[in-house]
Amino acid sequence: MKKDGQEALTFLGIVIIIYGILYAVLGTLSYLNSITGVLPIHEQQDILALLLTYIITILSILIGLGSIKKKYSIIQLAGIIFAIIGLISLIYNQITQNFFNNLDCIAIVLGAGICIIAIINERKKRKSNTKIKSNKEKVKLTKTKKENKNIKKNTNKNTSKD
């Protein structure tokens, strides 16, 4: 069970890195008018859209690396920010171009998915850490009880010899 969430997070980390690189390439090619119809907002030479593309790319690579390294607290925040940026970009394209961008929709799903899996994994990690701590405390208690019994036995033997 524990490995399933970690493997899913690693997989989504790799997917989001690939997504970020492809998004930057497609955005740049659309901006240069090498390809058409993929990202229409870039074809109008809108610098804000290109800037947003590179922000999404950098953020996706950072989230992907954090997912692979299992930095849960950082991933949660970055995943939420990534999903919000995707939503803003989706709304911006819809209002200005009357165009639904599938790439922004994918950004929302990836950001939210990574955030949720990171939250679940962090909770599992905390539970396992508290179980380990309680088990260590139990072991210490049993050791001290055994030591106390041994001390009592030794004192009883010493007093009976005298």
Structure described in brief:
The protein contains five helices and no strands.
* Beta-strand percent range: under 5%
Number of strands: 0
H/I helix tally: 5
Specify Rg, calculated over alpha carbons. Answer: 27 Å
Number of domains: 1
Low-confidence stretches: none
Q: Could you report the average pLDDT, rounded to the nearest whole number?
A: 79
Structural class: mainly alpha
Describe the sheet with the most strands: none
* Gross geometry: rod-shaped
Termini, distance in Å? 60 Å
Q: What percentage of residues falls in helices of 4 or more residues?
A: over 70%
- List the helices and strands in order: HHHHH
Structure, explained:
By secondary structure, the protein is an all-alpha fold. It has one domain (2-122). It has five helices and no strands.
Please write out the topology.
Blueprint: H1 2-31, H2 40-43, H3 47-69, H4 72-97, H5 102-161
Helix pairs in contact: 1-3, 1-5, 3-4, 4-5
Descriptors for this entry?
mainly alpha; 162 residues; rod-shaped
